[in-house]
Amino acid sequence: MKQVILTGDRPTGRLHVGHYVGSLKERVKLQNSGDYDEVYIMIADAQALTDNAEHPEKVRQNIIQVALDYLACGIDPAKSTIFIQSMVPELTELTFYYMNLVTVARVQRNPTVKAEIQMRNFEASIPVGFFCYPISQAADITAFRATHVPVGEDQLPMLEQCKEIVHKFNTVYGETLTDPKIVLPSNKACLRLPGIDGKAKMSKSLGNCIYLSDEEADVKKKIMSMFTDPNHLRVQDPGRVEGNPVFIYLEAFCKPEYFPEFLPEYQNLEELEDHYRRGGLGDVKVKKFLNNVMQAELGPIRARRKEWEQRIPDVMDILKEGSRVAEAKAAETLNDVKASMRINYFDSDQSDMYQKYADLEKSDMFIRKATVLEKSETVVFWCILNC
Known about the structure:
By secondary structure, this protein is mainly alpha-helical. It has helices at residues 17-33, 45-48, 56-73, 90-98, 104-108, 111-119, 128-131, 133-143, 156-173, 216-224, 245-253, 258-262, 269-278, 283-309, 312-341, 351-362; strands at 4-9, 38-43, 81-84, 148-150, 181-183, 366-372, 378-384. Helix 9 (156-173) links the parallel strand 4 (148-150) and strand 5.
């Protein structure tokens, strides 16, 4: 079996460092590992429209922003297929078929759907398209026969529901779809990066992000204003590391080589954390170290992004070609799905269906009357006797 990766992001804004440590960094690593035959990275514009239907221009404009972030982080068009979701209409048809395999109650129990509804204050006014997000995501994953899906921790319930759909389809119609595996970051701090305001999740809609495209001064400003331990009022006070966004970011981004360069009085992050817990280490000093770490990580990404910004026509060509390749792959899967469901009525390999009519033709219940028309065309009329 081919080893295939499928992952992606909604183009509702530029990507932030939560996307980077949560999934993007892992995608680049997997792309370059040589262990995968195909890598598909989707810009999910159709999904973005489920809660932005009245603002399509927002989605349209951010497609290029997300593509620039991908390329800046190291996604290589020669190794990965970057495509736009709406340019692959087969995904919509697959979603329609999968809806028949999932109950409303099951979607309502999805923790990610619950959290997103609450965050957006949808309540009873939730758009149907947004509500069906787990089903459409299953279509995205299965269309490319993905064996591995690198995502953040918040997407785990979605993958579980996708696996349920795959199991149900294969049980009802026969082995057709590929069962995917989720790929989470190995560093626990990367599973879900909190916002700079201390909120549980970094989110574009909450405005608590550090973006990959942020300028150096903007990154520094955001880091120096980050939420820390509210009880750590004086330098000499003992501080709390657990749940402290500054230290969570250090766990996610810090490398051993950064200490000799930026903070030589400490050997490693553990020493820094112990000093903070004992007291005698101020928040400003820790934040300055974090800023140096983040600048070292984001600097090369920012530079590559500016280079690609000068090549927008090339970026569009990458998306166009990637969408063409993606549609061809999805079309193959859709054909297999329809064959398994036996709704490929006009395919040549339907001899068994036609044989039934041939058998009926020979029975005493039917009489065939044929009339030869112009150009030797024949129309066959079936009449039921004794009706």
